[in-house]
Amino acid sequence: MIDPAFPPLFPFDEHNQKLESNVHPRDWVDPVPDGKYNLVVIGAGTAGLVAAAGSAGMGAKVALIERDLLGGDCLNVGCVPSKAIIASAHAAASARDGARFGVHVPEGVRVDFSAAMERMRKLRADISPHDSAERFRGLGIDVFMGAARFTGVDSVKVNGQELKFSKAVIATGARASAPPIDGLDEVDYLTNETLFSLTELPRRFGIVGGGPVGVEMAQTFGRFGSEVTLFTTRSGILPREDPEGGRLVADELERDGVTIKDSGATLCVSKNDDGTIALRDRAGAADEVVVDQLLIAVGRAPNVNGLGLEEAGIEYDLKSGVQVDDHLRTTNRNVFAAGDVCSRFKFTHAADFMARNVIRNALFGGRARTSDLVIPWATYTTPELAHVGPTRDELERRKDDLDVYRVNLSGVDRAILEGETGGFVKIYTKKGKDRIVAATIVSSHAGDLISQVSQAMVAGVGLGKIGSTISPYPTQGEAIRKAGDLYARTRLTPFIAKLLKKWLEFRIR
What we know:
This protein is α/β, with parallel strands linked by helices. The protein has three domains: 14-176 and 301-372, FAD/NAD(P)-binding domain (3-Layer(bba) Sandwich); 184-298, FAD/NAD(P)-binding domain (3-Layer(bba) Sandwich), CATH 3.50.50; 383-490, Enolase-like, domain 1 (2-Layer Sandwich). It has 16 helices and 23 strands. The longest helix is centred in the N-terminal third of the chain and has 18 residues, at 79-96. The chain is globular, with a radius of gyration of 25 Å. The N and C termini lie far apart (92 Å). The model has no long low-confidence stretch (mean pLDDT 95).
């Protein structure tokens, strides 16, 4: 077996070899810079790839630098592998729950974890050509494999070669970071960067973190058959989301066998002699949880170290990342940043559209604002929980200025037929108006449905117009239209109702 190149991919089977050949080819030869670049892109995750491809497509001379794997977290250790194994876990749950639909699995459900993980690796490798070094070279981009470092206000060095630029964009992303848990430094633990290298299902699996990654993986491994314990803070799971939505997700996790423990800030861990890991509450709780594997799914740190930002006059913070204004310009007027290295919205789709703004602003003198972006997000549990607009805490502070329209899926025929009546659609509008401010959707299709609301917000389409939009019957999307109907009914004030009644009485005289 060939040894994997840096960074290591495990297991180094045919699928990971294919992945490596696309996103970190070991025989890659850097080009020789020929003059100044319109744009130098540091980092080839989503933001970097979009910025590079979009700029080159408009005729710019572009250099793209990546020290690890092209595709960044999303392709290699984030969205793509996680959604692949979530799909396998969903299939297992559907088979397990088939009896309520009249479908019986005679010998029960058995998950082949090794096969599910191999499927993930295969699909990830199959997707990787889209992010490959060869593809971007084919777009006319100079691709460099190595660590970039600023050497001045308009230059960077990579593998001993200096690149001069008119503009540059920092798109180095973020990495997993661990919270200050007593004893954590003494044990071996997983992060999202190592989780997808597992080849054996942990019999007992501990997960620290009640955010999207933690809850998605807790449900997934619970459905695979692990005894999962999810440790959260006192804010519970999905603390940024609608509290009722979070409770619905928590109920489903518990149905999938996940034990949820509120550990607060008092969790401590230790390693047992047999290699297992013990987790307990140092505040005095008597119960101790022993696990075979531990996943830390909380905390992200921006990748700012080693970039020589001081040499370029770029201000940054180790927690929040590179400092940018609303136009994504750093404190060096010729350098921009996009994606997780500078944004509080650490989503692939946010990085994508931030990069589009960088192209406009850096190359064409545009004034596109990050604050104008309407950014939805979704947690891909069952049910899915999706949101767009201000967070729940921000909405709470603004509640006196908002109207709320709620439709329960228990009143939507398609949800009834599919046995998914626990969810809801909740749309917030400016008080007395139909202008949409935010929305939360909890359903099996929430990640898809939220796009309809986001599109309306971007286009300035109010909830009243949504109520006039015909939806196919039966779909769960009808719930959004029904919210529009609720708004329409508020227009029928007692005075208007009285006038209409008199008019109708007059018509039959």
